[in-house]
Amino acid sequence: MTNDVFISYSRRDKDFVQKLNQALAEKERQVWVDWDDIPLTADWWAEIQAGIEGADSFIFIISPDSIASKVCGQELDHAIACNKRIIPVVYRDCDNVHKSLSHINWLFFRDSDNFDTALEGLLVAIDTDLDWVKAHTRLMVRAIEWDKKERNESYLLRGDDLAEAEKMLGKVDKRPRLTLLQSQYILSSRRKQEADRQHELAAARQLAQETQARLETEELRSKEQAEAAAKLQQRARIIIGALAAFIVVGLVALFLMLRTGDLVVRQDSLIQSVIDSDDSVTNEQFCWFGTLNGVPEDVLPACDKAVELEPDYSTV
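Structure (tokenized):
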């Protein structure tokens, strides 16, 4: 969860911080502040760090006690490491402030200052270039999460998130600037997306090649099948033609021999074998050939058999 501000302070300034926190809450600002004065532990410090990382601005309450506080110094150092917008708020005058605070405009909330006027100035500081600051915070939170997860690729930016982050990378004049970690996070995300794109392109090319090869194989198979069918049809036509020619020649030769007296001895048995075949077509053809070749009386039994087998031949 992100907040508008994180307040770092000494416990001795707690009354003032409570007043400031209440005023910010009334202005609908989300404030992260640690009210518990407890010993440092690993879990506690991790929570403090997360609070700083998730805040858009870091308010440091300046007083002699906060400047002397080790914890306040650690909180300030972490905010600086995260390139947070730091807003120094002077509650009590002091010397020897942290050098990182010396070049930043201070806001004065001393007892001698007008609280409401100072609050308006604080709100302006918080809201200045707010879109950039919030984007900076979101990017920081995600980059830290990625880093804590041993830079697992599943935590990298993608799509529109990456595009927006890359725009931020080019805005070097913006404040607060991006941290090294944020920049590494963006660049790693870009490399991963580019690698994924190359992988997808390679997969698409492979699929296209496999599809083309399959289509060519199927086309070749179809062509071979068509050629084989054509050859088979051609062979069948040749065979049928040869058989037809053979039959015609045989029948003609047979009738010539019968007409000239050759094979007279076999004539009756040949006609009888045709009749015994019980094939209407054979009997009908035999009848026609005998009639056309001048021996109708010899093939008359075949004509009768043809009519018997197929009444439509009665016109023969």
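The chain is about 65% helix and 10% strand. The longest strand covers residues 55-62.
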